[in-house]
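Many introductory courses stop at the sequence. We go one step further.
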Amino acid sequence: MMPEISLNILDVAENSVRAQATLVEITVETDIRENRLRVWIKDNGCGMSRDQLEQVTDPFFTTRRTRKVGLGVPFFKMAALSTGGDFQIMSEISKGTEVYAEFVLDHIDRMPLGDINSTIYTLICFHPDMDFCYTYRYDMREFVLDTRQMREILGGIPLDTPEVAGYIREYLEENKKEVDGGAII
């Protein structure tokens, strides 16, 4: 099992890359009052057939040719359910896939969120031709980083240009801290 939720998010988002998505939407929401940590990962990739969807949480199923197991989604599901949370995956051929994981926030078996800023930064900088829309919510506060808006402002300057990448990292760090006050989740 992965040691933090952000690595599960990275793994599922990399599945979106392999599914030829052009847009991946990631939402991380902490709701203290409801004692929940929720994650949504949605893409517009190739989607999965009904048979693939039924098998995707089986660790011995993968569509990759380089290995015979696919542990990312099954581990993510197990991590959520082990806290008394929920896990759902929906997909439709040619329309994309959506993964939802809900964790009981104060459950002893809930792994930490981890370095979500580095996860989002890595996705954007290693896949500069893809678009990502990241929403981070903590109770009633939120911020959004949408690479489509950034591209419009930058007018063709690549997102993996060192100056732009540095700005993205700072933007993530500053806004997360402003939204959650530096809480360790």
